[in-house]
Design a protein that fits this description.
Number of helices: 7
Distance between the termini: 46 Å
Radius of gyration: 16 Å
Number of domains: 1
Mean pLDDT: 90
Largest sheet: none
């Protein structure tokens, strides 16, 4: 049942984003920012954590999970470091994901050459 819950919650989040792309004038970049901010706000108000506990990777793998990780990192860092944790916690908590994105983006740029439009 865990896999099914992850599948339908993650699929629902992706389907909502696809509807936003198709039916509104929002660009994919704006929807990405919207999802990250929504993940932060829902986590800050205690709404997203039960969703993560229910759906697991279905809620943490989509981009809203990045906002969830940012918010939790800031919370933990503020508890340990105080005010300075506001600035360091989010980056510390998401360092592995950021590193992977930069590394794979760089490798992709090396392997494939852009074409003129």
């Amino acid at each position: 049942m865990t896999y099914f819950n992850a599948f339908w919650v993650g699929g629902l989040l992706c389907a909502i984003a696809q509807v936003l792309i198709d039916k509104t004038t929002l660009t994919p970049a704006r929807i990405l920012v919207l999802y990250v901010c929504l993940g932060v706000f829902l986590t800050a108000f205690g709404i997203y954590t039960p969703i993560v506990e229910y759906a697991g990777a279905g809620a943490t793998v989509p981009i809203m999970g990045f906002g969830y990780s940012l918010c939790n990192g800031v919370k933990e860092a503020v508890m340990k470091q105080g005010f300075l944790g506001i600035f360091t916690g989010g980056v510390t908590a998401t360092a592995a994901g950021i590193t992977a994105a930069v590394l794979f983006g760089y490798l992709y740029a090396l392997i494939f050459k852009p074409k003129e439009k």
